[in-house]
Amino acid sequence: MIPEEEEGWDEAGARRLEVTLAPGGASRLDKALHEALSDQAPELSRARLQALMAEGAVTRDGQAVMAGSARAAPGLYLIEIPAPAPAEPQAQDIPLTILFEDAHLIVLDKPAGMAVHPGPGRTDGTLVNALLHHCAGSLSGVGGVARPGIVHRLDADTSGVMVAAKTDQAHQALSKLFAAHDIERAYIALVRGAPRPERGRVETRIGRSQHDRKKMAVLTNGGRVAITDYALEGVWGPQERPLAARVRCTLQTGRTHQIRVHMASLGCPVLGDPVYGSGAPAGAVREAMAEAGLGRQALHATVLGFVHPVTGERLRFESALPADMAALQQALTKKIA
Questions:
Q1: Per-residue pLDDT tens digits for 226-251
Q2: Greatest Cα-to-Cα distance within the chain, rounded to the nearest angstrom
Q3: What are the pLDDT digits (tens) for 66-105?
Q4: If we measure between CA atoms, which residue out of 287, 325, 319 comes closest to residue 303?
Q5: What is the C-alpha to C-alpha distance for residues 124 and 335, in angstroms, rounded to an integer?
Q6: pLDDT category, 211, cuts 50, 70, 90?
Q7: Which of 46, 47, 131, 298 is the most exposed place for a label (fewest CB within 10 A)?
């Protein structure tokens, strides 16, 4: 039997393959490598090779080769295959800001930058990983092994209040509350410009964009009904043409990216939004964002209220603006009269 270290495996399960391409083979690099590795690694598809190249995991004579469509140059190629990710999320000791906890559920203040559950390109460091450690396995299984306890989500770069279920009973009851829209959910958004009128309701249908499947969009047909009530809480700049504003958004439904899509549809996208923030803010607003160190969409889930699914107690939680959004408000006030 060939020892593992000679076969190219390390203790963590990563694999290193070497192959030498001679002149005169297949013209495309991905095809040439796929053919050369057919005996050594038959499970390695051309698509997987292309993905490894895009990640910088394929080198020729020490230099990364990124494009599978490039011409196959002769030489020694090294392919670094990372260890497979575990099928189930692993518990990680990640600090949590807990607002409430009992035997049935846990309410917390999620920081910006933390994904709710593992997904493509993010296998750890998520809220699920943190909850698995904190709750020591006491999480509902209704959401499946990949999303234990998760009843609803916030975008990774949206901060604020969330609830997770520790028992199946609580999970099922909370899910019914969300489905019936019997949950109080309010967000603070710092936006470019300001909505008109100052208070109103946006009611549209939201679904996958027909032009970019990674984005959501307001649709005339298809999608699902999405309703957001909004109220202007403050503006920066001239009243007739504000440069930025603080808007309180209350969700009546909970569609993916709902507030971000609705604010953009009103012509006042959330500041810092990398997906829906088309058009640059005014110079003074950009300066304020840089001074505040804003590196994400300025959106915060500030209120979450519901009836406890087991005790019947009315619960309501509030979360103050996180440091980056509070700093942005101060910078806007300083820079814009």
A1: 999 999 999 999 989 999 999 999 99
A2: 79
A3: 887 888 888 888 888 876 666 678 889 999 999 999 999 9
A4: 319
A5: 39
A6: confident
A7: 47
CA angle 166, 171, 172 (to 5 degrees): 150
To the question of pTM greater than 0.85 for the whole model, the response is: no
Residues 249, 228: Cα–Cα separation, whole Å: 6
Q: How far apart are CA 47 and CA 14, in angstroms?
A: 19
pLDDT at 24: 72
Task: Give the separation between CA 213 and CA 327, rounded to whole angstroms.
Answer: 34
Is the omega angle on the peptide bond into residue 197 within 30 degrees of 0, that is, cis? yes
Q: Which residues on adjacent β-strands are paired with residue 122?
A: 119
- CB within 8 Å of 31: residues ≥ 6 apart: 46, 72
Chain centroid to Cα 250, Å, comes to 21
Q: Is the pLDDT of residue 63 over 90?
A: no
* Tally of CB atoms within 10 A around 328: 25
Query: Would the CA dihedral through 206, 210, 211, 214 be positive or negative?
Result: positive
Active-site residue, selected from the candidate residues 30, 155, 157, 324? 155
What per-residue confidence (pLDDT) applies to 257? Answer: 96
155 is catalytic: yes
